[in-house]
Amino acid sequence: MKKCFMNFLLCGLCGWCMECFWTGLSSIMKHKDKALLCRTSVWMFPIYGMAAFLSPICKKLEYKNALLRGGVYAFLIFIAEYSSGNILNKFGACPWDYSKAKLNYKGIIRFDYAPAWFLVGLFYEKLLNRK
Predict the structure, then answer these.
(1) Containing domain of residue 23, as a range?
(2) How many structural domains are present in the chain?
(3) Is the dihedral of CA 28, 105, 12, 3 positive or negative?
(4) Is the pLDDT confidence value at 41 over 90?
């Protein structure tokens, strides 16, 4: 139980850091903001922390090729993003809105983020399988 909790904290913190990096880089690209200001929400910590629950799946996929593993992780991340976004929307608390993006679904997920979620999933796999 302690390991699961520690993985939850680690995944949550790593996810927050990745989001800060991602939104900071996009701020310079979209708004020419040289301060690289990032934007996130406290809600994102437990959402990213849920990646800790990928651990049993990582073990089952351990000897499969990276394309399959990354694809499975990206799919599961989309499910988690859609589910959490849907729940947060019901309370008017969803910190993201992709409705203006071309490849969005209900403003909650963006299919053009699939390559990013693929890589994030493989990153979490390495994090969760560390010795």
Answers:
(1) 2-128
(2) 1
(3) negative
(4) yes
